[in-house]
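Tokens as discussed.
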């Protein structure tokens, strides 16, 4: 298959969100003289993941995630806090971190000459723009599509219909979506009738019925998929 349009997720696809998340939580808890433990991190991630899954399914709004996740997390720690206030502080710390995931920048810099690159993300608009700019990735994309600005989120077909309507001369057969989330990226791509690449950097087992067209474990492995002749897939050094 010959591809032309590449749609990239951001978190844990291009940028190391786990690292940024851990830093932000450490700083937030430090304000309250609490040391972040592995148990704390696991508790927060469990609460956060459940809320995001509900958001992806259209059951709650983005604001409900932001209002509830820290309220529920701190309640587990025996404290009652203002969820919105904690969310604002968390984003202050999160915005400061923009570590690249592997060789993502080098891969994008190679691809930008031959492909049309776009961002498709469910993250918050302010945070994502700041982190992409700080990581010096923003200029590599023709456009950035953020669910908060569109009013729909991955995997909703309405989200992808909007994205497709904004890309001139888009051909779904030549479009590929690359992301780390089976339930947002891969399912969304399938429902939108485009091919997908699951970036499984954590090397987890896929126990769902959602099947990507390709699975890779680092972004550099995308190169052979994109090139008709695998021998032309030059490694990033």
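Sequence:
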């Amino acid at each position: 298959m010959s591809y032309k349009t590449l749609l990239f997720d951001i978190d844990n696809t291009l940028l190391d969100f786990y690292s940024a998340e851990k830093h932000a939580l450490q700083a937030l808890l430090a304000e309250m003289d609490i040391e972040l433990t592995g148990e704390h991190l696991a508790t927060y991630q469990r609460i956060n993941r459940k809320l995001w899954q509900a958001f992806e399914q259209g059951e709650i709004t983005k604001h409900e995630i932001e209002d509830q996740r820290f309220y529920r997390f701190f309640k587990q720690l025996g404290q009652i806090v203002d969820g919105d206030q904690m969310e604002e502080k968390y984003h202050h710390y999160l915005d400061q971190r923009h570590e690249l995931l592997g060789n993502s920048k080098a891969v994008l810099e190679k691809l930008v000459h031959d492909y049309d690159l776009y961002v498709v993300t469910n993250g918050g608009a302010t945070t994502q723009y700041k982190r992409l700019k700080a990581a010096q990735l923003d200029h590599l994309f023709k456009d950035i599509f953020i669910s908060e600005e569109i009013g729909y989120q991955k995997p909703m077909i309405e989200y992808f219909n909007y994205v497709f309507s904004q890309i001139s001369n888009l051909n779904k057969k030549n479009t590929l979506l690359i992301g780390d989330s089976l339930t947002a990226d891969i399912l969304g791509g399938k429902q939108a009738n485009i091919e997908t690449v699951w970036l499984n950097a954590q090397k987890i087992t896929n126990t769902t019925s959602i099947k990507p067209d390709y699975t890779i474990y680092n972004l550099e492995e995308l190169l052979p998929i994109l090139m008709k002749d695998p021998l032309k897939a030059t490694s990033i050094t």
